[in-house]
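User: Need the bound-state model for tetrahydrodeoxyuridine:
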Amino acid sequence: MEEKQIETTYLVYPDANALPAQYSKLLDRAKASLKDSWSPYSEYKVAAAVELANGQIFTGANQENAAYPLCLCAERVALAAAASKCPNIPPIAMAITTEKGDSPAAPCGACRQVISEQEFRFDQPITLILGAQRGNVMVLDSVQPLLPFSFHGALLKG
Ligand code: THU
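Assistant: Bound-state model below.
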């Protein structure tokens, strides 16, 4: 028997102004997309901006439904928009933000899995920039530290 540990390394910036310009620009695009949220049920707006390797940026905001399980998270809306328009260009970074408070956005488990699929698809880590209206911004090199032992296509082949 062997005990192993999983470590997560991430950067914490005191606020958005302290971010490298590329990341603050992406976070600004996400913040500008909060207006696109349709969230009358939770009243919790989330938005994401995905940057592709060719420099294009696609945004998305959460889209809720009166039939609650049909709600779509901002991250998946943004990634699907990017993949639908530019299916062969890898995403390299994604900023996620919420309207409320100063706790950085945390992608839900399902969104972590969907972000992970894009990383495996293109063999390209996606930098995650997690922010809120104000306060700390967290930056991770990849979604994998947020999803240890992630399920991916190669496992289906045994
Ligand atoms: N939401 C997102 O858009 N992204 C997440 O990663 C967490 C949750 C949305 C879904 C729902 O519209 C609202 O936030 C409250 O759960």
